């Protein structure tokens, strides 16, 4: 591995043993090093491959908009997030999160704050990730001296969900989150009330919905005995009505065919949430 460019003492652009360009980070990894020098690999704490010419161009473009400090802040959040969440993020998160933090800090300088309409849902759908992101926002406030509002945590969550998935990027992550948000909204409207985000049965329902949506997006189906489905529908009529509303919405909006098995499990989880929350 050889040095191509030292961005500061702790961040460098390198060519790795596979001939790929990458960003490496670690305390003193580029200290006193010149282009062409071998990189002291034992100092490397984080390694991000820049995939192809596009990745290199994106990185060069990024460096015109943000500082190396922003990249180091992003790297610290990624390292801690992977450790605490058990994630293995793809390398693109370095570019996307660094860019986000750069824009965030510019907004803080100007006193501009905004949230996302998905914030409540993100908090409910990804509770573990949201708790970590809240801590990351608090740490950013200490390191930068800006009072960064908690709602910025929702954006960090989306970056981690996107980078930990094998999907098609942030657009798919947003669509996935939006579908879950719509299912929760249908449920709240059907029962005419809000559900407490800290309730165990609400959390179980949200977890079920997450896996349900993943199965639907992959075209997988859950099948059950029709007689069992009929019994559950009769015993839990209001919950079954809600499940059918969700099923019809998904068919209309996304063309999904929701199986009787999925409708049954939605009914059971809706019943638990409605009775116990």
Short overview:
The chain is an alpha+beta fold and 277 residues long.
Please provide a written account of the structure.
By secondary structure, the chain is of the alpha+beta class. The protein folds into 3 domains: 1-49, Roll (Transcription Regulation, Sacy, Chain A); 64-164, Orthogonal Bundle (PTS-regulatory domain, PRD), CATH 1.10.1790.10; 170-276, Orthogonal Bundle (PTS-regulatory domain, PRD). It has 11 helices and 4 strands; from the N terminus they run ββββααααααααααα. It has helices at 52-65, 68-85, 92-110, 119-125, 127-144, 153-164, 170-191, 200-218, 226-235, 237-254, 260-276; strands at 2-6, 11-15, 21-25, 46-49. Strands 1-2-3-4 form a 4-stranded antiparallel sheet, with helices on one face. A hairpin with a 4-residue loop joins β1 and β2.
Number of domains: 3
**Second CATH tier, the architecture of the largest domain:** Orthogonal Bundle
* CATH domain fold name of the largest domain: PTS-regulatory domain, PRD
For the biggest sheet, the summary is:
4 strands, antiparallel
Placed side by side, the strands forming the largest sheet appear as 1-2-3-4
Beta content: 5-15%
- Count every beta strand, where a strand is a DSSP E run of 2 or more residues: 4
Distance between the termini: 56 Å
Q: How much is the radius of gyration in Å?
A: 23 Å
The CATH C-level name of the largest domain is Mainly Alpha
Share of helix, binned: 55-70%
CATH homology-level superfamily of the largest domain: PRD domain
Query: DSSP helix count?
Result: 11
Spell the H/E element sequence. EEEEHHHHHHHHHHH
Average pLDDT level: 85
Poorly predicted regions are none
What overall geometry do the principal axes of the alpha carbons give? elongated
Counting helices, strands and paired strands, the structural category is: alpha+beta
């Amino acid at each position: 591995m050889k040095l191509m460019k030292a961005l500061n003492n702790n961040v460098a652009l390198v060519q790795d043993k596979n001939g790929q360009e990458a960003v490496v980070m670690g305390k003193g990894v580029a200290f006193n090093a010149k282009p062409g020098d071998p990189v002291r690999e034992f100092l490397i704490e984080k390694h991000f491959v820049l995939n192809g010419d596009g990745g290199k161009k994106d990185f060069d473009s990024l460096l015109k908009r943000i500082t190396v400090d922003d990249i180091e802040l992003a790297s610290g959040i990624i390292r801690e997030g992977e450790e605490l969440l058990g994630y293995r993020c793809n390398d693109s998160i370095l570019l996307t999160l660094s860019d986000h933090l750069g824009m965030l800090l510019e907004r803080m300088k100007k006193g501009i704050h905004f949230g996302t309409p998905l914030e409540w849902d993100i908090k409910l759908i990804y509770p573990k990730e949201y708790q970590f992101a809240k801590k990351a926002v608090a740490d950013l406030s200490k390191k930068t001296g800006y009072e960064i509002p908690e709602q910025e945590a929702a954006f960090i969550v989306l970056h981690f969900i996107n980078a930990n998935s094998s999907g098609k990027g942030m657009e798919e992550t947003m669509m996935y989150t939006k579908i879950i948000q719509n299912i929760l909204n249908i449920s709240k409207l059907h029962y005419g009330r809000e559900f407490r985000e800290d309730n165990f049965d609400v959390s179980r329902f949200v977890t079920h919905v997450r896996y349900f949506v993943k199965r639907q997006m992959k075209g997988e189906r859950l099948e059950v005995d029709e007689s069992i489905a009929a019994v559950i529908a009769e015993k839990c009529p209001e919950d079954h009505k809600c499940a059918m509303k969700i099923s019809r919405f998904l068919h209309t909006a996304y063309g999904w065919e929701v199986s009787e098995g999925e409708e049954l499990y939605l009914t059971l989880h809706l019943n638990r949430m409605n009775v116990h929350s």
